[in-house]
Design brief:
single chain, about 20% strand, Aldehyde Dehydrogenase, Chain A, domain 2, 6-stranded mixed beta sheet, Aldehyde Dehydrogenase, Chain A, domain 1, about 500 residues, 2 domains, globular, alpha/beta, 7-stranded mixed beta sheet
């Protein structure tokens, strides 16, 4: 693991130009890696050791201006580039990610404490996403539509409307710490394929993984200015980026910051994936073994630091004890330790995150919840915990822990579970376990949440599936085709004929 701000070992010089002589990683502007004129750096902590893992440049507002200027200048020529050539560039970037994955994966281990195996899987999944986007973009964006005027009452066939999709301009992409590569390319690839230019602001924890990923686009030969990367603390340049007059679209994944962005954005298309309190409803007729296995995986993968993690189980009383016993058995099989050892549970991202999770546990215990195992914490590492008998008066019933803590609420019936789901402001995903397919569909229809999985834990993928949240969990829908659609707008060209077209012949 990289510690004491030392650059990661670089594969065959492919990443050699990224760090400056002082060890701080550079930012990317107009086709070149640069050092900031601020002379300042931002330290990135290692969640496991709590020491400094890396340093990156602290970009200035003036450098952000230069990024948007470069993006605006490069966007129009890029939009005129044939679709197949744009696709070629994306395929080249994906190929380079597969050929040089280790430094990206190593950065994920060091910056966000993601297990090694999962880190490598994120890199490969991201390359797959880029390839699929290139192929889907050629198909979808290559389609047009022809409308004839005589389909509307009172009109002759003397007008032909050609409808096409055109880019928005410059897309600002802001991914989160937990998937700084995958959720970056889920924004970048459709933006570029649609003919937009990109400015990306990676999360502080996750910046170096994103920098290595952008190097693949750089080496793929994208024209200078088409993609630019700003590093620095969101508290210092975040508002400047999200309120920039040259941002033609904002695609953001994160938490409460997204709500603030929505309030400040003006006439800018938004794609927002925010927090989730993903409910898992377990009916009395469910396959309990399947439900328990799915809950353990869904709640504790990557230490629960996923927007699609199971955040609360609502189980009918008749099977509650059986379910909890099997969940506990599964949780006891999880390993706890460092990401280098591929432990199931690794440290959460920061001390403040660990403190917040701990406050939710203490609140629930003080109000009568049962901790079904001892609460244990060392630094940022929190052992997996099942909190039983959670009630609606506890914070854990409503707030998102974003950590390895699973609340269980026992309910009299499914109606009570659905009512709890629909009362939450966070409505990203949910899941239902039942052997009755008709019942599953009825429950899904009643749940006011963006996506519902039947007999499986919530999940984002496959990446071409629609993905969206309701209420405070988001705006707009993701998934590759949905993102291509969102990052373009409709353009109509109307041809006026001197005489109706059907009069010929």
């Amino acid at each position: 693991m990289a510690t004491d701000a030392q650059p990661i070992a670089r594969a065959g010089g492919f990443y050699e130009e990224l760090p400056a002589g002082c060890g701080a990683y550079k930012f990317y502007l107009d086709g070149a890696w640069r050092e900031s004129s601020s002379g300042k750096q931002v330290s990135i902590s290692n969640p496991t050791t709590q020491g400094v893992a890396f340093r990156v440049q602290a970009c200035t507002p003036a450098e952000v201006d230069l990024m948007f200027e470069a993006a605006k200048a490069a966007q129009k020529p890029w939009a005129r580039t044939p679709l197949w050539k744009r696709a070629q560039a994306l395929h080249a970037a994906a190929r380079l990610m597969r050929e040089h994955p280790q430094p990206i994966a190593d950065a994920l281990v060091a910056e966000v404490a993601k297990p090694r195996k999962d880190s490598m899987a994120e890199v490969i999944r991201s390359a797959d996403l880029i390839d699929y986007t290139a192929e889907e973009g050629v198909r979808y964006l290559g389609e047009g539509k022809l409308l004839t005027s005589d389909s509307f009452p009172g009109n002759e066939r003397n007008k032909l409307c050609l409808e096409s999709r055109v880019p928005l301009g410059v897309v600002l992409c802001i991914p989160p710490f937990n998937y700084p590569v995958n959720l970056a390319v889920s924004k970048i690839a459709p933006a570029l394929m649609a003919g937009n230019a990109v400015v990306i602001k990676p999360p502080t924890q996750g910046s170096v993984a994103a920098i290595h990923m952008i190097q693949c686009f750089h080496r793929a030969g994208l024209p200078p200015g088409v993609i630019n990367l700003a590093t620095g603390r969101g508290s210092e340049i975040g508002d400047y980026l999200t309120t920039h007059s040259s941002a033609g679209c904002i695609s953001f994944t994160g938490g409460d910051t997204g709500i603030a962005i929505c309030k400040k954005a003006s006439m800018v298309p938004l794609q927002m994936e925010l927090g989730g309190k993903d409910v898992c409803i377990v009916c009395a007729d469910a396959d309990i073994a399947l439900a328990a296995r799915s809950i353990v995986k869904g709640a504790f993968s990557y230490s629960g630091q996923r927007c699609t993690a199971v955040k609360i189980v609502l189980v009918e009383n008749a099977v509650a004890e059986e379910l909890v016993d099997q969940v506990l058995e599964g949780v006891r099989q999880l390993t706890v330790g460092s990401p280098e050892d591929d432990a199931s549970i690794t440290p959460v991202i920061s001390k403040s995150s660990a403190d917040f999770i701990e406050s939710l546990v203490h609140d629930a215990r003080a109000k009568g919840a049962r901790l079904r195992m001892d609460y244990r914490r060392e630094g940022n590492l929190i052992w997996p915990l099942v909190v039983d008998d959670v009630t609606e008066g506890m914070r854990l019933a409503w707030e998102e822990p974003f950590g390895p803590v699973l609340p269980v609420m026992r309910v009299e019936g499914v109606e009570q579970a659905v009512a709890h789901c629909n009362a939450s402001e966070l409505a990203l995903q949910g899941c239902v376990f039942t052997r009755d397919v008709e019942r599953a569909v009825r429950i899904s229809d009643a749940m006011e949440t963006g996506s519902v999985q039947i007999n499986a834990a919530p999940a984002r993928g496959p990446d071409h599936f629609p993905f969206q949240g309701f209420r405070a969990s988001g705006i707009g829908s993701q998934g590759i085709r949905n993102s291509l659609q969102m990052m373009t707008k409709v353009k109509s060209t109307v041809i006026n004929l001197a005489t109706p077209s059907y009069t010929m012949g």
